[in-house]
Structure prediction request, 405 residues.
Amino acid sequence: MTINIPRDVRDILAKLELYGHEAYVVGGCVRDALQGKQPKDWDITSSAMPKEVKRYFARTFDTGIKHGTVTVVLDHANYEVTTYRTDGVYSDMRHPDTVTFTRKLEDDLARRDFTINAMAYNPARGIVDPFGGQKDLAARLVSCVGNPRERFNEDALRMMRAARFAGQLNALIEKKTYDAIVSTAPNLCHISVERIRDEFVKIMMNSPYCLNILIDTGLINHFPMPAPLEDEARRFAREMNLSALSFDGNKLPYNLAVALAVLLRGRDRENAAWFLRKWRFDNNTVRKVSALIHWSKQGMEGGPANFRRFVAGCGKCLFKEVIAVKLLTRVVGEDKTERALREFELIIDHGDCLSIKDLKIDGHVLMSMGYVGREIGGALSKLLDAVLDDPSLNDRDKLAQILQS
Ligand code: ATP
Ligand code: MG
Prediction:
């Protein structure tokens, strides 16, 4: 079995070995490569100590030096080199209290979470797979390395990772591992909101049906956040149909904000925003999701003027995402969606005015006409209203006439 390793990574392995150490690519990249997928990044594990790694390469920086990780920079790409290590006791169910460097690769592989993630590869020596990762990968099974209960007691986030990998690999969770999740689920409350959120989002974005794993194992009831999410997650898992977004040459966007708006659609925008803040999402995401929830519930029927008002209201940048949410939540079907997209293209092609800043008259002109203070904003809103009804009115003279009438 050979794995095609990028040149830079091969060079790093070769250099470390030249200086008398062992070096392997390890973890996710081996798993992905064995499945014929292009790995996102190549992590390296080596018997070399961090200070040795730093000595051999011209450009490095300390990433997690306490945990033995040094980043090597080659041709503007970064590669993490981590010294073989074993983890000490996990008294907080999150992080090892201590890490100890070791000279044995097998010890390093034994600290990793799942058998499919506990394989290493070196071009000269091939795959090192002491826990049966290849077998589990072929059988599509997520199984812990070692005793699942102990492993989840060390780090409760691994339970969320198990669900995520099950989705990512289209795999099942091996029985003992699954049972251990069910009994250890309450430990999830020791993990930070952000880390749980990140795993939840990955599942939601890539394999919505795997939210069911979070529900069936009970994990979802032990998130360290106040709001119950079970019913929303269940509906999301049941109804989410990403292929609905591609039809007839159209492709509507699916992104984090769209997914969250679909998940939280049963709430009003204030409650959704409150929830997202509890989940420590950034302000941009909170604002966008709450706008999507609001606009996906507004009608766009009633003729061209109403439709323009709708597009102006949500903003043309957000329009396709709003339509995606409407379609995914079945507020509209394919027919209506297609019609709306066609009308939208027309508005864009015609360059119809959709906002005050697109008006052919601005505040300065109004001031020269004698408007002051708040009158200016009021006049601009009035003009926008008229132009949304009839786009041909967006002309300086016609707009001035409207104000004089
Ligand atoms: P992805 O494709 O999502 O990056 P990955 O397997 O590379 O998947 P990472 O979170 O990048 O996942 O971690 C890299 C490797 O580190 C994993 O393959 C696994 O061997 C190990 N690892 C990561 N997190 C844990 C954990 N919580 N417990 C034990 N081992 C872990
Ligand atoms: Mg990774």
Summary: The domain at 140-226 is CATH 1.10.110.30 (Hydrophobic Seed Protein). The mean pLDDT is 94. The CA atoms of residues 4 and 59 lie 25 Å apart.
